[in-house]
Design goal:
The protein is an alpha+beta fold. Helices cover 28% and strands 22% of the residues. It has 18 helices and 21 strands. The strands form four sheets. Strands 1, 8, 9, 10, 11, 12, 13, 14, 15, 16, 17, 18 and 19 form a 13-stranded mixed β-sheet that branches. It has a four-stranded antiparallel β-sheet with strand order 4-5-7-6, with helices on one face. A two-stranded antiparallel ribbon has the order 2-3. Helix 11 runs antiparallel to helix 13 and helix 17 packs antiparallel against helix 18. The N terminus is likely disordered.
Length: 529
């Protein structure tokens, strides 16, 4: 896309469009174009390979799920127009008719069955989608546009779970991840509002509008998602006119962008928690040992709840939010911000209390502390390395000998999944209050604990989660979910730090509507009227 200064010199009507911020190739594409600069590095077009933020953001413009979510994380129709719970083990979904895949083939129940058949067969997934489909033990086609699911156990979250699983064509049930990654010539054929035109791993995704889309027509004829990982690079691209919108705006740059009438800053609450996971499962943890010159440790300190609570109390969340994130976050007490339905109103943010933290360490037998390494990403989340360093400094004041190792996300997640760390910092986003406990802190195995990379295990937490998961009545289930959240935090299964805000900026003629999920895509943007 040409910079604004050059577009203004193109004659006639085309110059008028350019001055309005609409791409210079508008006529060739049949409408305005959009170029966004994003930190989210898409590394696959396979919608079932990695349940991660970049994938969920980009894949949702190519593929549809049976259900979708509104801005308050409430379920709304997607490829299913209606759904009902017949009995505790049976669900039925009415499917949308007259829907076409990008290749022109008709969408039917066969495609849903093929999708659910493929999900558990995708190898080497760092965070698999089986967590959303594993409870289904049978799929019965009741016609081309009606399907029945049988579950192994009562699964009240099945509808919201299936909102996370994108539907593919039955033609590609046997396709490999490499087949999907073959760009426009590959298997990445969905029913969504945009088609894949080009994809370069880690660089850019080019999309063209699907004019046969079953839903509302999208305003952009062509969309380019350009990966610009560096904060300075994204800011420069916006200011020069090379892109129309950017995400992850550094908080220090927000005031100057707001003062420039060419641009608009948009902020939204995120249904995401930045947290610390702790290896409380093993008797010996790889990055925990006695401090230099001290006798060897007896066991793994993280197995003691008092130590885990001390690590939480030593963190000044407000200081991190105010000084490192410049207010662009909210200190966290649980898995989701308390504004969302199903969260606990009883839980309060752990206060910064170094004296109490030290007292707990002494009570647990670790008055002299120990040596520990905190692992984190250095390219995944805003200020991720800086936040990890701040936590390391806090734990040092507690009396620990702390090292912080920040790694590229591609390395970090692979190693974390292999349980190679003692403590690590990451983010997790959910669309249902019950999913965080179920995925992050339940003992791994079966349909639970799919994102529990430290293999944390606690029988009382497991029992509370399973009790909530077995209750089909939503009124009765809500307090059970809250109880599961509360015991998870009482046992300090993870250390929640904060809920980040999403900070985005765009040209003044592009309107962005924030999403609570971590998303940054064309579906959130439209030309200003």
């Amino acid at each position: 896309m040409l910079p604004v200064s050059r577009r203004l010199f193109m004659g006639g009507t085309l110059a008028t469009l350019a001055a309005a911020g609409i791409g210079s190739n508008a006529f060739a594409q049949g409408g305005p174009t959009l170029v966004i600069g994003t930190k989210l590095e898409l590394n696959t077009l396979d919608p079932h390979f990695f349940n991660g933020f970049p994938q969920g953001s980009s894949h949702s413009v190519i593929f549809d799920a049976l259900l979708a979510l509104d801005s308050e994380l409430r379920l709304i129709p997607g490829l299913a127009t209606a759904w009902r719970n017949i009995d505790p083990l049976t669900w039925e979904f009415d499917l949308r008719q007259n829907v076409k895949f990008h290749d022109g083939s008709a969408f039917t129940a066969d495609d849903v069955i093929a999708t659910l058949e493929r999900v558990p067969k995708v190898p080497n997934s760092p965070n698999p989608f089986t967590q959303f489909s594993r409870s289904i033990i049978g799929s019965e086609k009741l016609g081309d546009h009606k399907i029945r699911f049988k579950t192994a156990t009562p699964t009240p979250t099945l509808a919201s779970d299936l909102a996370r699983v994108f539907i593919i064509s039955k033609k590609h049930v046997a396709a490999s991840t490499a087949d999907f990654n073959n760009g426009a010539a590959g298997a990445a054929i969905g029913t969504g509002p945009y088609k894949v035109a080009e994809w370069v791993n880690g660089q850019q995704l080019v999309l063209t509008r699907n004019d046969a889309y079953w839903g509302a027509k999208q305003p952009w004829a062509k969309v380019t998602e350009r990966v610009i990982k560096g904060d300075a690079g994204r800011i420069a691209a916006l200011l020069s006119g090379d892109v129309d919108a950017i995400d992850e705006v550094p908080t220090l740059d927000i005031p100057r962008i707001k003062q420039d009438k060419r641009f608009t800053v948009t902020s939204g609450t995120s249904a995401t928690v930045q947290y610390i996971a702790m290896d409380a499962a093993r008797d010996v943890s790889p990055f925990i040992s006695a401090k230099d010159g001290q006798p060897a440790l007896l066991g793994n300190p993280l197995k003691d709840k008092r130590v885990r609570k001390a690590l939480s109390l030593a963190i000044n969340r407000k200081l991190i939010v105010d000084r490192i994130l410049d207010g662009s976050a909210v200190p966290a007490s649980q898995f989701l911000p308390s504004r969302f339905d199903g969260t606990s109103a009883k839980l309060k943010v752990d206060p910064f209390d170094l004296d109490k933290a030290k007292a707990l360490m002494k009570e647990a037998g670790y008055a002299n502390g120990f040596k520990i390494t905190l692992h984190a990403t250095n390219d995944r989340y805003p200020k991720d390395k800086d936040i990890a360093q701040a936590v390391g400094q806090a734990w040092t004041r507690l009396g620990l000998q702390v090292s912080v190792e920040a790694l590229p996300g591609t390395v970090f997640f692979s190693q974390a999944t292999k349980q190679e760390y003692s403590t690590f910092m990451a983010q997790y986003g959910t669309e249902d209050a019950s999913i965080g406990p179920r995925a992050l802190v339940h003992t791994p195995g079966g349909i639970y604990g799919t994102a529990n990379r430290t293999r944390f295990s606690h029988t009382d937490i497991d029992a509370a989660i399973e009790k909530a998961q077995a209750e089909m009545d939503p009124v009765k289930r809500k307090p059970l979910v809250q109880a599961a959240i509360e015991i998870s935090m009482e046992e300090q299964a993870i250390i929640p730090i904060f809920h980040p805000n999403a900070e985005m900026a765009s040209k003044a003629n592009v309107v962005i509507t924030p999403r609570p999920e971590r998303r940054f895509n064309a579906l959130m943007m439209k030309p200003k009227a």
